[in-house]
Every structure is written in C-alpha cells, then in structure tokens.
Amino acid sequence: MRAILMYGAGDVRVEEIPDPVLQQPTDAIVRIVRTCVCGSDLHPYHNMPASEDGTQMGHEFLGVVEDLGSEVTGLKRGDLVVASFAFQDNTCDFCREDVQASCRHGGFFSQAQAELIRVPQAAGTLVKLPVGEDSPLLPSLLTLADVYGTGYHAAKRADVNPRTTVTVIGDGAVGLLAVLSAKQLGAERIILMGRYKARTDLGREFGATDVVAERGEEGIAKVRELTGGDGTHAVLEAVGYMQAYEQALGVVRAGGVISRVGVPQYEEGAIGWGMFGRNLTLTGGPAPVRAYIDQLLPDVLDGKVEPGKVFDRTVSLDEVPDGYRAMDRREALKVLVRP
Amino acid sequence: MRAILMYGAGDVRVEEIPDPVLQQPTDAIVRIVRTCVCGSDLHPYHNMPASEDGTQMGHEFLGVVEDLGSEVTGLKRGDLVVASFAFQDNTCDFCREDVQASCRHGGFFSQAQAELIRVPQAAGTLVKLPVGEDSPLLPSLLTLADVYGTGYHAAKRADVNPRTTVTVIGDGAVGLLAVLSAKQLGAERIILMGRYKARTDLGREFGATDVVAERGEEGIAKVRELTGGDGTHAVLEAVGYMQAYEQALGVVRAGGVISRVGVPQYEEGAIGWGMFGRNLTLTGGPAPVRAYIDQLLPDVLDGKVEPGKVFDRTVSLDEVPDGYRAMDRREALKVLVRP
To answer: Domain Alcohol dehydrogenase-like N-terminal, which positions (chains A, B) (predicted)?
Structure first.
C-alpha cells in the first residue's frame, strides 16, 4: 500500500510499504477513506532529526472495516467507522474514569496517512457511523477523531457553562473547535485570540464574540480591557508554545482555569505565587476522544454543527507533502486527505 | 498594647505599640482572645531580611468585638468572633465565586499576634461564635481562621469524594487537617506522607489509613507500591517546597489532581508532557476560609471533629518568640497563644 513517511524535518515522502495485517485477535484492518494532517504533525515537521528509517505519520482517520480479529465485538466487515486518535480498550479503570489516553492497553496512532491501517483494541476504538462513504458529512465526522474532541476537552476540563467567560488562544483547527465547543456548552462571551482573518472569521461563525489579533503583553492588555480588567474564567490554550502559556496566565481571571490541549513544547513554566495566589487551575491533556464521540456525534449527524469547516483544502495521498507545506506556511488551515 | 514584631530572620520581639483605632466605617476593633503561630510564619522566620522597622505578625485569631464602625452590620460589641485569615467584603463577584482571597476590597492580615487588631470589612470577615470566652472549643474554633479551612480547601479543590484515593503531603497542621477534611468528604484511602511520628499518629486519628515516612523517590515508590503502581486520584500538597511538588507529580494517578495549599517557595516547575500527557490537574491557592466556616462550624460545635488537636503547646504573648523557635525546631506542631 501507499503511505506517508517522514524522514526528518521538512522531509515527507509517499512510499510503497507492506500492507498491515492482523496481529492480535483484538485488531481490525481498516481501509482509510479520509485522513488529514494535524497541527501537531507540524512539530516533527519542524524538529524531527534526519533518519534513514522513515516514520509513518497520521492519527486521524475514518474508513471501512476490511478485516477483524476473532475477539472484536460489535463491528463487521464493511462498516464505516471513525477512530479516536489514541486506541484504548474502553473498559479498563482509566477508560471508565475518562482518561482514555492512559488506557492500560492503549497507545497512540501514527499510521493513519496511508491506504490501510491496523487498529489495535478495535472494539474500544472504532465507532460505527450511520452514513455511507459518499456522505457529505465525512469531513465533519473526521473531526471527531481528534480536533473536535480535543477542542471539546479543553472546554469540558475548564467547566465551561453559561456563566463562564472564555478566552480561546489559537486559531488553528483545535482552537476554532474549542470556540464551537464553548458555544455548545452555553458560554455567552468567547474571546478568540488569533491573527489570521480567514480563521478568526470562521471562529466568529463558530461562536466567538470578540477577536483579539494582538499577542503577548499587547494581547493580554486587550483581553483585560474587554473584561473590565479581570480576564476570563476559562482560558482554552490550543497552541502549545510557552508564549501561549504566558498569555493564558495573563488573561485568566482569579479563580479561573487554564485548560491546555496544545501539546506543550516546553518542560517548565511559571507555577509560583502568580498562579497560586490567584487560585488558578491548570488542567488538560490528550482528550478522551472516544468518550466524546458519543456526545458529539448526534449534532454532527443532524447538521446542527459543521466542525468539518476547518478543512479548507483536500489532497490525494500523493499530494500530502504539499499539504504539510501548505499548513506550515499557513496557506491552509487543515488539509483533508482522500487516499 | 503589646504585639509581636519580626525584625528579620529569627528575630521575633514583643513590643509595646499604639492601640489600633477605627479608620473606616466598615472596620471593627477586636480584643484578641486566642491567636497562634502558622507554618507559613516560618517562611519569613527563615528568610526575612533584617530591618530596623519591625513587621507585625499573625493572621489567625478569635476574639471579642470592642468597637465597631458605623457601617458594620450583624455584629455588636461583646460578640465573640472568629476571623478568616484574609479579610473580604463577602459580597463582591469574586467572593460570590468563592475566590475570597481575591476580594475587590480584601487583603491579608498580618497583625493578629497582638492584644488588639483592626479588622477591615468586619461584616464580611468576622463570624459570631455561639460560645463563651471560656469554652474548651476555642482551639478547634481558632483552626477555622486558617489551617482547617486551608486543609479543607485542598480536599475540595481536588474534588475528594468516596471514590477518590488521596495522598496528603506534609504532616504540619494543614496537612493533618487536609487528612481530616478528606475523611469528612468520604475518602476511604488516605495516605499521609510525613516523618514525625507524633504528627502522623494524629494523622491516623484524623483518618489516615497509611503513613509513608520516606521522601523523594523512595517515598514515591512506597506510595505507588501501596496503590498498585498507579498513585492516587488526589494529592493534597501542604508543604510548599519544590521537593513536595515533585513528590506530588510522582504519586498522582493519571487523570488526577494535585491540589496545593502550601504557599509555593518556587516560581517555576515541571508542567510539560509529564503533566499534560497524563491529564493531570494542578490547582489550589489561598483558601476561601470565610465560605468554609459556615460549612465546618457545626461539626466543630457538636464535637464531631476536634481540629484543635493540632495545637500541642500554649504560650503567652511574651513567650511567642519561644513559640516560633519551638515550631521551627519541630518541637511543637502548632503553638496556641493566649495574649
């Protein structure tokens, strides 16, 4: 089959590799119908040391079940399914506590930008979709694999509700879907911090009431000005850089929550009196996307929300290297792939 | 009146200073019946630069209302009252959101080790006690001013409940009362990390099911061993040193909460993938003690709990310098003062 491999920073290739096969009785093989490039794929695209062994890429996909291990229940060949970006048994104590990224039999996918994928813990990972391969809903359904559930996680962890004011830091796909999620959870005031007008326009469509293009101290001052000097109860941080964390500390209201879903690209940060004295909470992490699919799917199927609007370019598998480049240059917000 | 002043590290003096007077119509003057020395008073006792101007000390007190400003409602001269360690109007938006340490008209006391004290925002800060000056409950009632409410805050912020396993780091008064609070909130497994047997024995009396005397990596290994390798859902950090924060990171379960009530003696700490990847939450801060007094008072009055057991020495105002020394040398857990 054809698959995407990264050989180092900036070096993305399409290659012919062996088809995956069932290894465990709990596995499935899925033929990928839609996959995409994630903002988090850009971190290795910037940093990966060059190597002669390529690394398969991609963790978001929906597709058709081609083969099933003997112990997989609840699925059959031909089912159209969406997967969570992390696989899990969905039965262990961590899964039941909604910390599925820490599942006792779990792990992260990194083989989804391909024609086929082996899915461990298929029964706990794949969710059957009640639509066909030609459904116009596929882009929105694909966001359930990661970016929508991840934006929703930011909002849930920050306990966003109708009484909460919200700042979202980052106008990437996750940030924009954090806006959408905050709106779904009832927030009436949602300030989006982002610099790219096409993206922040989509953010307004998703529910942002204010857009702050400034960053750093200037951005902090702007958000404070919009909130009577106090900042917002919830800050959903969907970037992952230290500057975004510092911005979050600057715009959060006393007693408020900084909820991170951007993978932190730093090891240490300010957690002293500036955080403690104001009773701030820092939370977040890899989303239990599998748990959220059940909650988010109905509104997607009904067309009440259209998270798939974050995709603004569609490419074939052969064009994926161009897709990475376009996202890296901010020419594309999020690239959909039809293998 | 006589009052305690600190002139630098280790330099605590008893001095004659002018009596406080009403300054605002919202003030009260209280004659102090009981005050005490706090673990957090030991930080300046170690670090305060020497100065010719002494600094008044103390933030925990109960006493009798001597004088009232014209706008103070709900209190009268002669009332026996307990104060929260921070004063607040108890009506502003932050107070209503239970972030009373960030009250718009609030501040922290530092004049309680004395014969008299001026109490700003008296109506929002003082709570009338239905007992007399000679009540044997006074030590327990005094803990409502800070250490009991602070231990309770740690447990509340960590959402301790009957399904939560708990580790408490620190066997000072706050740590021991965090144990008591976790027990009151229904926790069935409470591991206390502390090295002083007399204190950890009191911790067992308050509800600790296990005691781990080891610290650092060894202590972490011990707690993990006690919890099937996973750590506990809640970690209540009642120390404030970096070593305690690192210990907290080591013993917290994936998806769990580190709730700090020890004032952090550091500015930066690990908040990278090690925290994010495990969906950990970091929370805590100065407790909204005023809000908790209403919740905690009934069980103290009924004698159902005896948080006052943390006091193991009683001194006069003149003996307060000895009291600091005894707490610093771990000869006393917490020193009660009868001015």
So the answer is: 25-130
